Amino acid sequence: MDDAPAPFRFFRDFLCDRCGDCFAACPYLELSREEAKKEIASLIEQGRSRALEVCNTCHTCDVACPNGADPYELVLERWWERRRGGLPTTARLVTPSEPCNIWSCLKAIMPADELALLRSWDDFSPREEICLTGFYTSVVPYIMRARVLEGLPKVVGSEALFGCAGDIYKTGRFDLVEQIARRLERVFGELGVKRVVASMSAEGMVLKHILPERFGARFGFEVTTLEEWLLERLLAGEVKVTSPLGMKVAVHDNCLSKLEGGRLQGVIREIVERTGCRVVEPAHHGERSMCCGFGAAAARFRVMDIMSSGYRRLKELEATGADAAVIYCPACLFILSVIREMAGARIPFYHPVELVEAAAGGRPDRRHEERAWDMMAVISNHLVKYALFPSHRRDFQPATVSPEVEPLPELPPWDRTRMKALATLYHSPVVQNRAMRAAISLGFKAAVGGYDLARKRRLGLKS
After folding, report:
1. Is 55 left (phi over 0), alpha (psi -120 to 50) or beta?
2. Are strands 129-132 and 195-198 parallel, antiparallel or unpaired?
3. So what's the pLDDT on residue 424?
4. Nearest to 419 by CA among 447, 378, 384, 456
5. Which residues in 344-353 are b (16+ Cβ under 10 Å) and which e?
6. Is 304 buried (19+), middle (13-18) or exposed (0-12) by CB count in 10 A?
7. How would DSSP label each residue in 334-362?
8. Residue 186 and residue 402: Cα distance in Å, rounded?
9. Interhelix angle for 352-359 vs 226-235, to 10°?
10. Residues in contact with 296: Cβ distance below 8 Å, sequence separation at least 6, in sequence order
């Protein structure tokens, strides 16, 4: 391991007493207290731990630490040490400056009405109040057309903002996070913005906490979330519930909702209850909530890690016996929607905006199933390139992030052709029939089961 001093130090070693509370609480390691003590000591002193292979970036260890030492940030620091020379190829999907990123691929197959919506958001003319779309709101833009969002500030955003560095932070590439922070300072400064309503709450938390507290970003604006804005309208009577839904609803909490003592989690539950629904909690919830699966990629950037982790979470949501699940992070929503389709699950998913829209007598524009198959086309395109082109398998060094907002690279012609062909296939009767869907479900569950068993044996984890 490189003995040079790390330029970024966020783990507070001086507060850590090696008690093991952090890793004993980890829902992925599932260690006894004594094992957890050894594991955190090994990570601190030798830079080695099974946590580096199974971490889902769920922040549970930070919440569990009684001393505020931020052990999750130690995991990130160790990843930083390993990844300064480059990121694994799958990270190209969430790096907007790379060709064949998620957003460029999706735009090749998105319907015209959604593309028009995205173009209308790419407007950085000065204004004091905005709704920031968020990285993954751009994957499910149809949510933002709900009538209950009338009165929302002008929707502004672009994938070129790198999702306010939320994904890059999870990889441990702190140098890129710092560059993104400087870009955001410039963009928001030129906008003259005083208040930001974050359509993706996780990005709101990055703007409020991670970038200012870790990277010294100076933002002269207030940050609130779309869910908080929506609850205010419900409480003020500006949105009226005319058709109580009467469902049992399981809530999936995202990773960064654990900040601020889980205050946002309470906001979500109040919204759910005000729509006439009753909350039933999955086994892991609140400060112990599990990842949707997306964060599982951060450890090794393997698609099977996402599938395995996401399926585990889906089964927890189903086990509640809920009529539906509420998923308020757009990233969690699209990942769990993909897992749901692959597994052949029936539990419907709602974003809180959709739940309120339905309770207010509206008809939400629900496209989650269709978008899940679009995302499978994106993933398939990546896997085809990985299999056919050795150059696509190599680690890559992301381009420097300039202070200027730059357009996304054009999708290469052959990728555009493949994307359209794959999307056409996945939406066709060849795939969308009962026999094929059953076969996909059986194959998916068998693959995930075998993968989980092999990984647990290799790492010596509980089976």
Report:
1. beta
2. parallel
3. 98
4. 378
5. ebebebbbbb
6. middle
7. HHHHHHHHHHT----EE-HHHHHHHHTT-
8. 10
9. 20
10. 56, 305, 306, 308, 309, 310
What pLDDT does 362 receive? 96
414 CB-near residues (< 8 Å, 6+ apart): none
HSE on the CB side for 20, CA within 13 Å? 14
pLDDT number for residue 4 = 45
Other residues' Cβ atoms within 10 Å of the Cβ of residue 443: 11
What's the token pair of residue 365? 């524009």
Three-class SS of 380-409 = HHHHHHHHHCHHHHCCECCCCCCCCCCCCC
- Phi, psi at 66, each rounded to 5°: -75, -15
**CA proximity to 174, closest of 9, 406, 399, 45:** 9
pLDDT on residue 408? 83
The predicted pLDDT at position 366 comes to: 92
Q: Where are the alpha helices (DSSP H) in 146-191?
A: 166-171, 174-191
Name the residue with tokens 């003590």: 37
Structure tokens at 342: 């692959």
How far apart are alpha carbons 302 and 322 in whole angstroms?
Answer: 30
Pairing of strands 195-198, 222-225: parallel
CB atoms within 10 A of CB 284: 18
Helix (H) or strand (E) holding 268: helix 263-274
Q: Where are the beta strands (DSSP E) in 134-265?
A: 155-156, 195-198, 222-225, 248-252
What token pair was written down for 396? 């890559």
The pLDDT value given to residue 189: 94
Per-block mean pLDDT, blocks of 10 residues, the chain (463 long): 59 96 95 95 95 96 96 96 93 93 96 96 95 94 96 94 94 95 95 96 95 94 97 97 97 96 97 98 95 94 95 98 98 97 97 98 95 97 93 92 86 95 98 97 97 91 74
Model pLDDT, residue 6: 52
Q: How far apart are CA 436 and CA 125, in angstroms?
A: 49
Cα–Cα distance measured from residue 166 to residue 39, given in angstroms and rounded to the nearest whole number? 26
Phi, psi of 199 (to 5 degrees): -70, -20
Give residue 7's pLDDT.
67
Q: What pLDDT, on a 0 to 100 scale, did the predictor assign at position 2?
A: 46
